Amino acid sequence: MTTKNMAIVSLVCGIVGIVGSFIPYVSYVAPLCAIAGIVFGALALKNIKAGNCEGNEKGLATAGLVLGIVSTAVSVLMFACAICAVCAAASILAAAANG
Fold this sequence. Notes:
Blueprint: H1 3-20, H2 30-50, H3 58-98
Helix pairs in contact: 1-2, 1-3, 2-3
């Protein structure tokens, strides 16, 4: 896989990860795209630093890496909020049952 392809895949995975983290049920799969964006972005930047590139892919790779990191953080935050909501609902139900 060329450096340009890795940079493009990184950017696309980062975008899919950040958009998918706000869509219900897709948000459970979005971190996988985000992690793929991080991995491909890091590999592309490594190849760029080694001089194995044809053009200017550094911007694409950096954007994909940043979007992947932000998407992972957003997904973790959304997951934590969902856990807190479930715990709060269970607490309210338990309090209502006790009376």
